[in-house]
Amino acid sequence: MQTYTQDELRWAVDEVERQGAGPEAVLHFLAAWDYAKGEFFPADKDTLDLQIRFVNELVRGQLPNGRAYRETPVVFANGNKGAPWQEVPRLMDRLCESNLLWTIPDAFVLEFLSIHPFEDGNGRTASIIMNRRTLGSHGAIGVVAHQKMACYPFRNVPEPTNWVDTYVPPRPAGWETQSAS
User: Fold this and answer.
1) What's the total number of domains in the chain?
2) Taking Cα atoms as reference points, which of 94, 98, 99, 91 lies closest to residue 117?
């Protein structure tokens, strides 16, 4: 049986309430946190991409199978739009390739939230990623979440890949056909 600190429980309840999910989502959030603490911290982009999808599926109470990203448009409460759903796989590939999670974690989370790759649970997933990334270096769980996750107003940035473009060199023309052969 897993035990949790008061900070972890408070963090889970706060995140679920802030995201407007029901009380059952607290258990899903904690299951995703358990998974992240034990399994999540990949260094290569393909594994990182898959791990993020696993965390999101657990946050939403689903068995992790690494399904694809959302296939619907998303509009935030403030009227801003997430990345076009057709672009989500490419944007997530570039984000995971960018090394931002390891170099500028705040920027990684901001980019993740502006892409908004999933239909639900993006904020909770981002909170878990950020807290897992900083586990052991920032003290209590949830401290990072509440300071950094106030970034939802950041969605006013028109281009969701500003940071990624800075940290990922452009791919050569025809790279997709080269990698397929």
Assistant:
1) 1
2) 91
Amino acid in position 103:
T
Which CATH number do you get for residue 113? Answer: 1.10.3290.10
Instruction: Classify residue 176: in a domain, yes or no.
Output: no
Alpha-carbon span 119 to 114, nearest angstrom = 13
Q: DSSP letter at 150? A: G
Residues forming beta bridges with residue 106, ordered by sequence position: none
Q: Give the integer Cα–Cα distance in Å for 52 and 104.
A: 17
pLDDT digits (tens, 9 = 90+) for 42-70: 666 668 888 899 999 999 998 877 777 99
**Domain encompassing residue 142:** 6-169
Residue 1 maps to a domain: no
Dihedral sign (CA 82, 85, 87, 90) = positive
Compute the half-sphere exposure of residue 14: CA atoms within 13 Å on the CB side of its CA: 17
β-strand partners of 81: 75
Per-residue pLDDT tens for 98-139?
A: 888 888 888 999 999 999 999 999 999 999 998 888 775 444
Task: Kindly write down the DSSP assignment for every residue of 63-104, as one continuous string.
Answer: ---------S--B-TTS-B---GGGHHHHHHHHHHTTHHHH-
Tell me whether residue 108 is in a domain. Answer: yes
